[in-house]
Protein 1
Amino acid sequence: MDAHLTPALGQIFSALLEEAAGIHYGPDDREIFEAKLLAHAEEAGFESLLDFYYRLRYDDPSGRAVNQLVEALVVHETYFFRELEPLVQLVDGHLTDVVRRKGRARVWSAACSTGEEPLTLAMLLDDRDLLSRVEIIATDVSTRALARAGSGRHGRRSLRDGHPAALAQRYLEVGEVGVTVTPRMIEAVTFSQLNLVDEQAVAAVGTVDAVLCRNVLFYFRDQVAISIVERLGRLLARDGMLLVGVAESLFRFGTALRCEEQAGSFFYRKAA
């Protein structure tokens, strides 16, 4: 493709993506944004970025082409047992308590990518004989990522050095070309497509005892991220918890959720 991303083109493509999925690419992301955009436009058969934009904006009534671009741009970097300690604290503390008090619990992994996070949660719960009493919902904007999650087949990089060997041996089969999850863990998770900027779709998830929304808020402008956090907070049951990534903080958003530290892990709890 004989083209490059001019400032004007960058602005209109950025506006289109933010409108469709809330994704924001700032000046520091311009190089990777341009490379991925050009590659996807060329793969779609366009020689002009402007023609590609017109296709997306005016000749894509179903939104399928825009969704395909979103999937091409969003980085699905995750792996089993990532940021494990907060998940352990969530299971051994909050979820164990909810099950004891209410008999059942409900958890939502709100940006699950290829599924390693909710599947790790399922392993932890099963290891503690809690899985049958916890409903796990997992959603992502990418149907391609969800297809991988539901297949239970992952690349070798999905299992990194330092993982808990006993859990991995019990629930994962490691082969020469990839990692396969035991079917019982996959069956314990309900995977479905959901866009976090779609207020009605988020509301339809219903009340949950905990939300995992880790390492995703940085994709959005602050105002969009604030709206997402507010929507997630409204779904939390009384005394429910929101868990974000270890490098993320909600303090600058002014959330109404109360921050708590448990054994070095930070959670945001809805007031009882």
Note: DSSP finds eleven helices and ten strands in the chain.
Protein 2
Amino acid sequence: MRFERRILLLALAGGLPALLVLQLILWSQGFSAKAQWTSALLLGGAWLAAGLAVRERVVRPLQILSNLLAAIREGDYSIRARGVTFDDALGLAFAEVNALSEPLREQHLGALEATAILRKVMAEIDVAVFALDEQRKLRLVNRAGERLLAQSAERLVGRSADGLGLERCLTGEPRRVIEAAFPGASVGRWELRRSTFRQGGMPHQLIVLTDLSKTLREEERQVWQRLVRVLSHEINNSLAPIKSIAGSLQGILKRVPAPADRDSDIASGLRVISGRADALNRFMAAYARLARLPRPRLEPLDVGDWVGRVVELEKRLPVTVVEGPAVRILADGDQLDQALINLVGNGVDAALETGGDVSVSWTRSDRLVEVRVIDGGPGLTDTENIFVPFFSTKLHGTGIGLALSRQIAEAHEGSLVLENRDGARGCVATLRIPL
């Protein structure tokens, strides 16, 4: 039986005894049959109307609550119940439903805004993003992914990874560099990142492909530009005086009669030409040394022995060694010797200018060893160019030492940082090498 009918029957049953008693009283008074039936009809109509009114007062608020909850379920949070009072149970129920709509509306708007931002970011980023379900069928792709596969999202969604050429991206290491060709791009190098997430309780896989070829080509172009600038500068610095002196010597040879000091002038000019040629040869040798750094051969290396061995090579100024913890690392000892020799040598050069001192210390953390070379020199004046090859603030510097030292550190998956001391004069060179 429906709820509305049960309410009506209960209301009628509640008024039925009173109706019967009242009708018996009227019949016992000796009224005519017509009057008795008229009163019965009137009382019955009032009884039925009262039952229907009770049914309406019970059912209508429940219908209103049902409509409010249905609107909330459909995402419409603008509907409110009227006549809310706090002095009865029904008014409190309406008030609570009205209060529930506001936080749900704010959460719904926040979710819509977050989804819109995510879709906008997904559409604008220059990396291809693919989401595949547990059956390895494509469920989501951004614009970059459409360009990569040379098809629209409508044609791509629902197809299998094998049919899209993404099968190899779902196996192997989750983060690696692969070489592949796609319908919308030629053969190139791609950085692959794969992760998992759940949607609707089912596992999905997210694939992100970044084109490294463009980045590598741009980096290569910038490297070549810097190389050409450096080589042009150094070669011109050597060729300009060579050309000038060669022209002067040619003029001397053409003089008739020959001047008395011709031989000495020619010898002097040839010495200058030879010196500039030797300087250019040293420059090219230094560049070749920087460019042909071999891969490090990792062997156990005691940090204390390494630091002590390098410090003993410096004879111009006593270098203080601040003993650190006993620690061994896997590294190429010869390369690290060269890196630390450069750092200690630079520190001594700086300290000799101001009469300061130099110290070397090391500390250990969970993942790496930090070796610090601290000097009391004038400090760094040009922090932007200190690692630029062939840039040097020294009169006879080659500009190779720091660039080579940083290259050695990065070859060991470490780093090299130079910064001025805080609160004191001088510089701190920090060489970090992973354990």
Note: The chain is about 55% helix and 20% strand.
Protein 3
Amino acid sequence: MKRKKLLIIFGVLILAAGFWAYQRYLKPNVTSFEGTRYLYVPTGATINQVMDSLRHNKLILNPESFAAMASSMGLDKTIQPGRYQMEPGMSNFKLIRMLRSGRQSPVKLVLNKLRTPQQIIAKLSTQLEPDSTDFARLFQDSIFLKSYQINANQIQVLFMPNTYELYWNTPAQKAVEKIAKSYVAFWNTERKSKAAALGLTTPQVITVASIIEEETNKNDEKPRIASVYLNRYKIGMYLGADPTVKYAVGNFALKRITGEHTGVSSPYNTYLNPGLPPGPICTPSKESIEAVLNPEQTRYLFFCAKEDFSGYHNFATTYAEHQKNAQRYHQALNARKIR
């Protein structure tokens, strides 16, 4: 009889211990939610800061049990910074193990067309841990720039439109270096040879491509537009590119370029300055870069948007012919009351 009682007591104790362990370690403690939510742990964050974030974002049901277990497992000494994907119903044990191991979820950084270095900085600093000052400082770092044979005006060349996978807490320089791998890989021997044959450096090719990118989204017409700018450049003619004027005045929504705009004093105004602008006016697509490297062989020196607003252009070899094309386009603008 005594033995039976002892077995019962022992069984109750085991059940109690199991229940306690379940409550502390295995019971779901992350709230239920729809969609995807993340916990961001900054570099150097303390366990108290993590707790504040969990509470503030209402990601945890029982903060006390999590805090007790985190303390017993030494999370304050082993927590890893990063961006962690939360799963509804995660237990304390699973959450703490994730934070200790640093098993974070990478950021899928999508870079499309961006115009200014400031736009690039804003994109990077809003999706990664380093702040805008970290990237701004890097973009002016002469040693870093020299490693890619560019200057501060050419920083856009490193950011080819693509989707990049990065960890949220990647330092600024390492993040840009990883992104720049696409740029380095793109410029193989063949493409460098084509650029040299045009008498251009790779940043200069991208600068011309950035103008084309702003001129049209018609990939089939890009090699022809490239021929116009390359023909002008070859004979020392001013590029006279409207997109560079928009960049100079900082208004990319301009529909009509007037003398007021073309007279703006800026090294990017190709109506006033010979040769190429100091650097790209956007991050061009691969199609625009390929158009510069593989231009149509033409004698065209002028082009103007078609009056049907199709997005295509009329091309001309003489200024007189170009004036006729431009007149038709301006008449179409006037008819639509576009100013």
Note: Residues 333 and 339 are 7 Å apart (CA to CA).
